Amino acid sequence: MQKRLFFGIGMDDDTRAHIGQWLVDSVSASKANTQPNNWHLTLAFLAMVEESQVAELCDFASSLSVPKFTLTFGDYGYWQHNGIFYLKPEQKPQALLDLANPLRAFGEKCDLYHNPHPFSPHITLFRNCKPEPTIDKPIAPFSLTVKKFYLYHSHRNENGLIYEPIASFFLS
Ligand code: 2AM
């Protein structure tokens, strides 16, 4: 049995509300935004993983020793080729790279997924959205204090796509 998995960073409800309000007030797009409950920052996409490999992934994630860090978001961007509109952090703290790089490398070593692109931290707000959304006013910058990250299971139920945290890992 296989599951679609990825490692990522979540956010609190206040942050979801802040982003959601900005979308309502200041962003016009040709389609609906991604589900606020699904908003996250992908650290490492793993694609399809055998049930029997999940423990190994969790052991590896637990073995990382990375201090807590803060991400500040105030910038946005758009990728023409896939119509992704996203928020991106103003900086890439070393601790963020020290999480993403080994997790991505481990997924490659296990032959789960070979990343075609360098790590580009972002929070996807629209997908397959063409033309590019128009922005009346930039988002008031906000910060996320990252104390943990998750292994997410991406699947569908009667409500659509859900990213369900199936394991959590605490930073030091
Ligand atoms: P996203 O980070 O731009 O939102 C589950 O599908 C998550 O993994 C989504 O957050 C998604 O994109 C990311 N993802 C999906 N396919 C991917 C791929 N081929 N490479 C990198 N990340 C991917």
From TrEMBL:
GO molecular function: 2',3'-cyclic-nucleotide 3'-phosphodiesterase activity; RNA 2',3'-cyclic 3'-phosphodiesterase activity
Motif HXTX 2 in this chain: 122-125
Highest taxon of source: Bacteria
EC numbers: 3.1.4.58
Matching Pfam families: 2_5_RNA_ligase2
Key words of the record: Hydrolase
List of catalytic residues: 40 (proton donor), 122 (proton acceptor)
Reaction(s) the record says it catalyses: a 3'-end 2',3'-cyclophospho-ribonucleotide-RNA + H2O = a 3'-end 2'-phospho-ribonucleotide-RNA + H(+)
UniProt short sequence motif HXTX 1, positions renumbered to this chain: 40-43
Protein family (similarity comment): Belongs to the 2H phosphoesterase superfamily. ThpR family.
Known role: Hydrolyzes RNA 2',3'-cyclic phosphodiester to an RNA 2'-phosphomonoester.
Protein name: RNA 2',3'-cyclic phosphodiesterase
Organism of derivation: Pseudoalteromonas maricaloris
Gene that specifies this protein: thpR
